[in-house]
Amino acid sequence: EAQVTQNPRYLITVTGKKLTVTCSQNMNHEYMSWYRQDPGLGLRQIYYSMNVEVTDKGDVPEGYKVSRKEKRNFPLILESPSPNQTSLYFCASSRRGSGQPQHFGDGTRLSIL
Amino acid sequence: KQEVTQIPAALSVPEGENLVLNCSFTDSAIYNLQWFRQDPGKGLTSLLLIQSSQREQTSGRLNASLDKSSGRSTLYIAASQPGDSATYLCAAEFTSGGGADGLTFGKGTHLIIQP
User: Fold this and answer.
1) Are A46 and A23 in contact (CB under 8 A)?
2) Residues with Cβ < 8 Å from A66, sequence gap 6 or more?
3) Residue A91's closest chain B neighbor by CA?
């Protein structure tokens, strides 16, 4: 089954404790991205990757890092999480090129205390 | 700044009614517009994608239209059912977007279909 898988689905942690949210897709998609969803603000793009070893900032990249060492994986790293990064995070993937539908994971709910 | 706006923010209608959800965008230079459904605690499910060269797309009881010149898209749901209750999100891929291939989302319409 074609899917985008995120882990963990839920995480409660404390300020400053490094964490990684993994994202994996099995559709051989070139393009992957991360979004965060906040009440009243909607979904906003954090980082995206056009292909292996190619990453770039989205609209709200501060406090986040990503890497794309393999085509299928695109982890989101919070080196020193802060409470304002409490949010619902989504990973998405698609084929390169405009007009390709994006496929989303089920989301990861992070709470930073 | 490119923006996508959805009206209304919430909508409640009796089962069986036909309804229209609205989406507007500030820049007509788009590659495509995509409608998603989001259920509570779930991710986003793609419903319809309209390319910039198209005027509409249909899937079952859903029909989405696109009018680039006026910066509008609508999602028409025919014969609504309680199972259609969800938040519906509109997202545009702008040609001049900084997030190349990235989507700019509206804040969604929360739809409730009353049995």
Assistant:
1) no
2) A34, A46, A47, A49, A55, A74, A75, A76, A77
3) B43
Residue B56 has pLDDT above 60, yes or no: yes
pLDDT, averaged across chain A: 93
Neighbours of B104 (CB within 10 A): 25
Q: How confident is the model at residue B100 (pLDDT cuts 50, 70, 90)?
A: low
| Cβ contact B34:B54 at 8 Å | no
**Chain B: residues touching A (Cβ < 8 Å):** 31-32, 34, 36, 41-46, 49, 51-52, 89, 91, 93, 95, 98-103, 105-108
Residues 6 or more apart in contact with residue A61 via CB below 8 angstroms = A46, A47
Q: Which residues of A touch B (CB under 8 A)?
A: 4, 31, 33, 35, 40-45, 48, 50, 56, 58-59, 90, 92, 94, 96-107
Per residue in A78-104, pLDDT (tens digit) is 999 999 999 999 999 998 776 788 899
